[in-house]
Amino acid sequence: MRAYVLINVRAGKVRDVVSAVSQLEGVQHADACWGLPDVFAYVETPNEKNLNQLVVDQIQKLEGVERTETHIVVG
Asked: What's 24's domain CATH number?
């Protein structure tokens, strides 16, 4: 399952979040961007359960993360 996870981050925490997200299993690439959202992460997981665990249990719990929005790739 492939998805883009858009992450809004508290001011001053973007570099820390990009670094932490980049190290998580399943994250293929993470970039800081100007504007909102602050971080775009491209992830690949074997299934929906693993995607949910990655986003809810890991990314959303990182210090500085305020909000996520996940877009699953179709086709």
From this structure: 3.30.70.920
Q: What is the 3-state secondary structure (H, E, C) of 11-26?
A: CCCHHHHHHHHHCCCC
Other CB atoms within 10 Å distance of the CB of residue 10: 13
Closest CA to 40 of 61, 59, 58: 59
How many structural domains compose the chain? 1
- In order along its 75 residues, the chain shows pLDDT tens digits of 999 999 999 999 999 999 999 999 999 999 999 999 999 999 999 999 999 999 999 999 999 999 999 999 998
